Amino acid sequence: MAHSVVIIGSGFGGIGMAIRLRRAGIRDVVILEKAAGLGGTWRDNTYPGAACDIPSHLYSFSFERKADWSRRFPPQPEILEYLRHCARKHGVLEKIRFGTEVTEARFDEDAALWRISTTSGELAARVLVPACGQLNRPALPPIEGRASFAGPSFHSARWDHGIDLRGRRVAVVGTGASAIQIVPEIARDAAEVRLFQRTAPYVIDKPDRPYRGWEKAVLAHVPGVYELSRARVYAAYESRALGFVKFPRLLALTERRFKKALRDGVGDPVLRDALIPRHPMGCKRILLSSDYYPTLARPDVDLVTDPITAVTPSGIRTAEREYGVDVIVYATGFRATEFLSPMKIVGRGGRELNEAWRGGAQAHLGITVSGFPNLFLLYGPYTNLGHNSIIYMLESQFRYVLGCVEALRRAGLGWIDVRPDAQEAFTREMRDRLRSTVWNAGCRSWYMTADGEVVSNWPGFTFAYRRATRRPDPRHFRARPAAAR
């Protein structure tokens, strides 16, 4: 017996998609989760200081508001509990099969079914929805001798909470979004922290604070206040898209905030100079922190800008010297552009998705891939953001996927497959538009493939994406009736 829909992953994408399907009356839904608990990136990233850089009222589902967030920017434990609450409340929790990793999904064209192989057995589905996200596979740097280190070492997304950092010498490799949260937290306990920086990021102040009791009461009980707060945050963040995709000069105000944060936080001119990025603002992700720069100015925190040449059993070596350390934390990001790896996805005619994406991931609207019928990606290529909430993008995708599922049922179709010309036209448009964005301004980032192609980001307003995905266009698809053999 084939299921109506199988979803892979139980983060915001998987949980939200299952809720929307259930509310539409589609209850034969299974979520496959390789871990022992739900939550996706918010389950995996439990490092000290882990929090979101999008305000809480916007980093949540529009259909499940939460008026009692503790802070303006939600911390990791609270986000994870919010997702658990959503799954419980909407009857999705019992749909999840934990400890079930998908190894292969193969489309059976005759039966119009996805045959799915997992570590817990086989199953089939009419519709397959991978909701694996872009930030789920940690990237460890190819540094010589990395495995030779005698002390504890781990990636920030696999934090070892059994290691006590008090009184120890800790090295943090990387200066991305995780590192700027980790360093201020661990510096409180460690004997010394050495931060190994390859590229200085732009860091601006984070206007975070706890919500007061009366504010939570107003948000919960006064009609329209919560919605107004959400709309205000959305408008403020959405306006930044112009600076990223069209008019980089509009980022000048943000650059002034960066310069002020650096000037106020770091008094030493030599250190301050080392923390000035050499790439245009916005080319890499702009980071939020009010305590990162003051922490780097402490005498027990050392910024190392010399490139790492090797890891040794007792520390980290650069061309200049070797630094003895007790613990190494790799805050080196994720393999964001590999999307569904290492799963093997096989579509029509035995074509593998990895082969189809050899020149870079492609998907019409970031959702459908030609040659892979009834496969709908969430948070696929060209749907990441540099300026607003990914939850808004996911909700646009939920509606589009639901429209496809309902079209299959309503028209009695066995499968639908996006036309190659529709996918190619969309990909050409994305590449043309991305060339003029700040993400192509000369730096390397996790938005890019190894060949330097930006394949992660949406080059425009999120409301434009919502309009583009408001309903599936039948002209973009070819279909086969369910009865045909």
From TrEMBL:
Protein name per Swiss-Prot or TrEMBL: NAD(P)/FAD-dependent oxidoreductase
Source lineage: Bacteria, Bacillati, Actinomycetota, Actinomycetes, Streptosporangiales
